[in-house]
Design goal:
heterodimer, A: about 750 residues, alpha+beta, Aldehyde Oxidoreductase, domain 4, Aldehyde Oxidoreductase, domain 3, 3 domains, five-stranded mixed beta sheet, 20 helices, globular, B: about 190 residues, 2 domains
């Protein structure tokens, strides 16, 4: 018995799924009433912790003198490796980094610049910060490896890359194929260190209560935070309560917890008081993972009609030597275009820098900057329209796995985007169109992003008054989870949305895989959909032989739940009456989403989301200042759960792509291993004035292989390829091809056309 | 400072040592008296002493705008100013603009236009937008203002003006197009 067959809910339902419902958490957020991790514990007069970071990149502490700091006003504790409690070791047998122990202040060794060497805890923030400056530290510095450009050939081969994907792949005979190609492109692209930089700094308020510990954290995955705190502090997970109802952005950087949470938790248990720790904006650059810098060689070989015969994507990137992170930068290249001869590879260069971590759309974001720039170069070499070139290389099956695509609409995205954008007005010759002082160009790029399904459980409870409550440790990091789960539950139980309450972000609730990898919405809403299905079955089973019900004896497989009532044909009964009679204390069920490894669709099909970006830029003919003028993305993501929040996320992702193309660049001081760009005045992200009209359009869709709702991930697709579309537009405007991201003006200026007479 | 040093009777050790300064200011229409460490920023006084956590700390040094509040009607970064500098001032924070069941038109516009995602920069964006509209009404020019309009002190509120004037408020979720739409809707009077 399927959900659709029994009740008509789900695919068609009441039409509440997909509707542009306002965010249900909106009124709290716009009035400042939504409380984030640092905004707790006021009633207990919390203490304030301030982290002291190492000022060398590699070496050891030879002396740390805390006497002056300890005597400073208000100071209650100075924690260093001398007095920090024994902690659990980082256990690499735990499969995912974010669930592992993250021990802090474990010894005198310094592994990277900014690594915590002390935590100062005081009655007031000002006191903790001032006393942190009184901790005296001496170091024995050792030479470190900090310079990727100089060391990038000194590589090793990781066993697997991120998400457990294979390091290398090969199909056919690339060398022979490439040699036989009529037209080839062989280029090296480089991408910089990038940082997630959510607006809410990483923060924790740790509150000890007897043997229990409550940690208010800013985390994307509550279960990972729980596991990590428990393993580090060697506590029974049942005694730890993780709370994260609101998260001020994550973008990968809050998949795991960091020094703020571990140090707050350790200190809170030592002083038996609530302790709050937030990273400063500058510390985030050193203490939270970053997107590795990369060097990517892309080789494309095509026949004269533009059909690829050979395609290779070889990636080298940095890793921390102790905490390997291999971004899957060439992974979606394996599924993007047809070509009989193919290679992909990933290599790592160990550097004494903070560890790599997932930054929005890991792999695809930097990988598509290179591949989609190379496709533009190939189009230029062939003198072919870049949209047409991509359409010509549309595969019929996944070219490396040999399995069919579940629901691929890349060509439709390209065609619809070209039509809406007015692509036919694109200057066919680079540097041929001027608008006053601006050289104007158009660029396009494809978007592709793998869709992941992860195990997730939710609980749905119907109360006797006919209201429903959804509970999960799932998070809403700005993605809209509260809102879409409200919609899915309202659909599944036939209730108005104001009779559904969604409660998230507590470790007491059923376990999810949180928000990350674009899997959160599809995982959690599928689980809610299933829980509602199970609840409907229980209610209908109860009503079948209930002579007090108008529905007694009617064909229950024809029941429809809508408008707070259960209908069978002409007969109907209020859901609340039905629940009150049979379940006076309420009734609840759980719903689950399987891991993709347990779902045969994920091995039988290649399941992705797709899109096409179109950008128009102006480049100042004298200064090479680059301004985005407008941008459009057309996307295929299966079924949309909320048209408003989906579009917002896609636009936000596209703007991340603009930042990657034009602004974002972490710069290492190669003498010290410190990031020279360590605040928002030096690590530039897009601001209002950088962003003109940016629009996103989503094609109607339903991927029946992905899950029962037909929905796929959205959060990361917008960034995929977006930066390449901007870079390609800069080429079209100027004739200057920059392969070293971001495209800052000094890289464009020397190649600009000579001034007009 | 000297005032507070003199008024020492019956005070805590910190106060007697002259480490705390007493200030009185109005916050959201209510007079608040505080003894603060003189190093306390207005931002931390609001968040940590008055429990008004709607004002956010994003960078703590004036680069992100998350801490924007209105002081005597003008928008400022509350992280870049000390609480002791605001004796007698009238401070309005996001909590003072409206409540969930009684939204300010700008707050309602942000909900309706989806001018936010994670919500962390949002109070600052909204306070900044409210302050910005009064700057425009007062005829203050910006980098985006045409020279003739600047001279005439009549500002046409183009999208470019809105973007320029809100560029001190970073939104990493990048809700920018929807924020501009929300501000425009309030300026044109069609929200609420």
């Amino acid at each position: 018995m399927t959900g659709q067959g029994m009740t008509g809910q789900g695919h068609a339902g009441q039409g509440v799924i997909g509707r542009a419902v306002h965010r249900v958490d909106g009124p709290l957020k716009v009035t400042g009433r939504a409380t984030y991790a640092y905004e707790h514990g006021a009633e207990d007069r919390p203490l304030y912790g301030y982290i002291v970071g190492a000022t060398i990149g590699r070496g050891r502490l030879t002396r740390i003198d805390t006497a002056n700091a300890e005597r400073a006003p208000g100071v209650r504790l100075v924690m260093t490796h001398h007095n920090a409690p024994e902690q659990g070791p980082r256990d690499t047998s735990v499969p995912i980094e974010y669930w592992r122990a993250q021990p802090m202040l474990t010894g005198p060794e310094i592994h990277h610049y900014g690594e915590p060497v002390a935590l100062v805890v005081a009655a007031a923030f000002e006191q903790a910060r001032a006393a942190a400056g009184l901790v005296e530290v001496a170091y024995e510095e050792r030479p470190g490896r900090y310079d990727f450009a100089a060391l990038r050939d000194d590589t090793y081969v990781p066993k697997v890359v991120n998400a457990g994907l294979p390091t290398d792949t090969a199909v056919g005979d690339f060398d022979a194929g490439f040699r036989s190609a009529a037209v080839t492109v062989d280029r090296l692209y480089t991408t910089p260190y990038e940082f997630s930089m959510p607006m809410e700094p990483h923060a924790c308020t740790a509150v000890p209560q007897g043997a229990d510990l409550t940690v208010h954290v800013s985390a994307q995955i509550v279960d990972a935070a729980l596991a990590s705190v428990a393993a580090t502090l060697r506590l029974d997970p049942a005694r730890i309560h993780v709370v994260a109802p609101y998260v001020g952005g994550g973008f990968g950087s809050k998949l795991g917890i960091h020094a703020e949470t571990i140090l707050a938790a350790l200190a809170a248990r030592m002083v038996r008081r609530p302790v709050k720790v937030a990273l400063t904006r500058q510390q985030i650059f050193q203490l939270v993972g970053l997107r590795p810098t990369s060097s990517q060689r892309v080789r494309l070989g095509a026949d004269r009609d533009g059909r690829l015969v050979a395609l290779a994507h070889d990636v080298t990137m940095h890793t921390n030597p102790d905490m390997e992170y291999a971004e899957q930068t060439a992974a979606t290249t394996r599924s993007l275009y047809a070509a009989p001869h193919r290679l992909t590879s990933h290599r790592l260069t160990p550097l004494d820098l903070p560890r790599g971590e997932d930054v929005r759309s890991p792999g695809d974001a930097p990988g598509l900057l290179a591949v989609e720039s190379a496709m533009d170069e190939l189009a230029d070499a062939l003198d072919m329209d870049p949209v047409e070139l991509r359409i010509r290389n549309e595969p019929t099956v996944d070219p490396e796995r040999g399995v069919p695509y579940s629901d691929r609409h890349l060509v439709e995205c390209l065609r619809e985007g070209a039509r809406r954008f007015g692509w036919e007005r694109r200057p066919t010759r680079p540097a041929s169109v001027r608008d006053g002082q601006w050289l104007v160009g158009y660029g396009t790029a494809a978007a592709i992003r793998g869709h992941f399904q992860m195990p997730t459980t939710v609980r749905v409870r119907l109360a006797a008054d006919g209201t429903a409550t959804v509970q999960s440790d799932m998070t809403d990091i700005g993605t809209g989870t509260y809102t879409i789960l409200t919609q899915v539950a309202a659909d599944g139980l036939g209730l108005p949305t104001d009779r559904v309450r969604v409660e998230l972000g507590r470790s007491e609730f059923p376990t999810s895989m949180g928000s990350g990898g674009s899997w959160g919405a599809a995982n959690s809403s599928t689980a809610v959909h299933r829980a509602c299905h199970a609840l409907r079955k229980r209610l209908l089973a109860a009503v079948r032989e209930d002579t007090r019900s108008a529905l007694c004896g009617l064909p229950w497989e024809k029941a429809v739940f809508a408008d707070g009532r259960v209908r069978i044909g002409e007969a109907s009964e209020a859901l609340s009456d039905l629940v009150a009679r049979h379940f006076p204390d309420g009734v609840q069920t759980t719903g689950e989403t399987l891991a993709m490894t347990d779902d045969p669709h994920y091995s039988a099909y290649s399941i992705h989301t797709y899109g096409a970006h179109f950008a128009e830029v102006g480049v100042d003919a004298d200064t090479a200042e680059i301004r985005l003028r407008r941008m459009l993305g057309v996307f295929s993501v299966g079924r949309v759960l909320n048209a408003k929040t989906a579009r917002s996320q896609l636009i936000g992702g596209m703007i991340w792509g603009v930042g990657a193309a034009l602004q974002e660049e972490g710069v290492v001081d190669v003498r010290t291993g410190a990031f020279a760009t360590r605040d928002l005045a030096h690590y530039l992200v897009p601001v209002h004035a950088d962003i003109p009209a940016v629009d996103a359009v989503v094609l109607d869709g339903y991927d029946d292989k992905a899950n029962a709702l037909g929905a796929k991930g959205i959060g990361e697709l917008g960034i995929c390829g977006a930066g390449a579309a901007v870079a390609n537009a800069v080429f079209n405007a100027t004739g200057v091809r920059v392969r070293d991201f971001p495209l800052t003006l000094e890289k464009v200026l020397p190649g600009l056309p000579p001034p007009e007479e | 400072m000297s005032d507070s040093v003199m008024r020492t009777a019956g005070r805590s050790p910190d106060e007697r040592a002259g480490r705390l300064s007493e200030i009185e200011l109005s916050v959201n229409g209510r007079v608040r008296r505080l003894a603060v460490d003189p190093r306390t920023t207005l931002l931390d006084a609001l968040r940590e002493r008055l429990g008004l956590t709607g004002t956010k700390k994003g960078c703590d040094h004036g680069q992100c705008g998350a801490c924007t509040v209105l002081v005597d009607g003008r928008r400022i970064n509350s992280c870049l100013t000390l609480a002791v500098m605001h004796e007698g001032d009238e401070v309005v924070t996001i909590e003072g603009l409206g409540a969930p069941d009684d939204l300010h038109p700008m707050q309602r516009a942000f909900v309706e236009r989806d001018g936010f995602q994670c919500g962390y920069c949002t109070p600052g964006q909204i306070c900044s937008a409210v302050g910005m509209l009064s700057e425009v009404a007062a005829g203050w020019p910006s980098h985006a203002t045409a020279a003739a309009d600047a001279v005439a002190q009549r500002i046409a509120l183009t999208d470019e003006e809105i973007r320029e004037r809100l560029s001190g408020n970073i939104c990493r979720c990048a809700a920018y197009p929807h924020i501009v739409a929300a501000v425009r809707s309030v300026a044109e009077g069609d929200a609420g």
